[in-house]
Amino acid sequence: MSAHPRYSLNQATVKHASLAEAIAATKGAGIESIGVWREPVADIGLDAAIRLIADSGLRVSSLCRGGFFTVDDGPERTAALDDNRRAIEETAALAGAGAEGSAAVLVLVAGGLPAGSRDLVGARERVRDALGALEPFAASAGVTLAVEPLHPMFAADRAVVSTLGQAIGLAVDAGPSAGVVVDTYHVWWDPDVLQQIARAGSLGRIASYQVCDWLTPLPADVLLGRGVPGHGHIDFGSLTKAVVDAGYTGDIECEIFNADVWARPYDEVAGETADAFARVVAPHL
Questions:
Q1: Cα 248–252–256 angle (5° rounding)?
Q2: Burial class (CB within 10 angstroms; exposed 0-12, middle 13-18, buried 19+) of 277
Q3: For the chain, what is the largest distance between any 2 Cα atoms, rounded to a whole number of angstroms?
């Protein structure tokens, strides 16, 4: 059993799996790459996680996640920046342990509005300031800071960066070691998305491409409305072609937040998503 060589299983798709279990499911489905999350790494410690990755023979496509930059100045903001520096170090270490072709990419979610605030502009400026402060540290570690825009329905509580265009602007302002994540779930609705993917490519800023589908009706917790590619409304052909034409040649992650998917055996999910990728995404590569 062998998956498409550019397919990567993002660990969020098997959310309840330990890192060892996620690695086993990934390898069992013939997948060559894995996107790692910080929480399962913290559960066993960075050194143990490095050993697991090194022994697995898998590439690392990214580490999720850093960010959450929108808090006001003070101890909480200082702590957030310090945590992101640790995340940068973890990214470099895990990518270094992965097989050849691993990507030292740290996915960043900007953060939502601070409690009681309605100042979107000010929150986005704090994101800009934080990226500028962290970019030299990331550059010295050989890590790319990958800003992920989230669908506008998450602007209040998760990410004040809502469009790919906004993310590109922030990355460019931060410096050469910053890029963007193109996640189909978050950008498919944007009438400017194809032009913005081309723009990101021309600037060399596409750090990661993630795929999952948009399901309706949305669940009560809209965070969990992602589906296996091909099960919803997203046109993976046009988006994938745009990313390819923009010059992106890295691994492509499937990242699904869905309670029903999470409840299933990890090996089944890994196999199903690899098959879906082969049918829906791979023909456009």
A1: 140
A2: buried
A3: 52
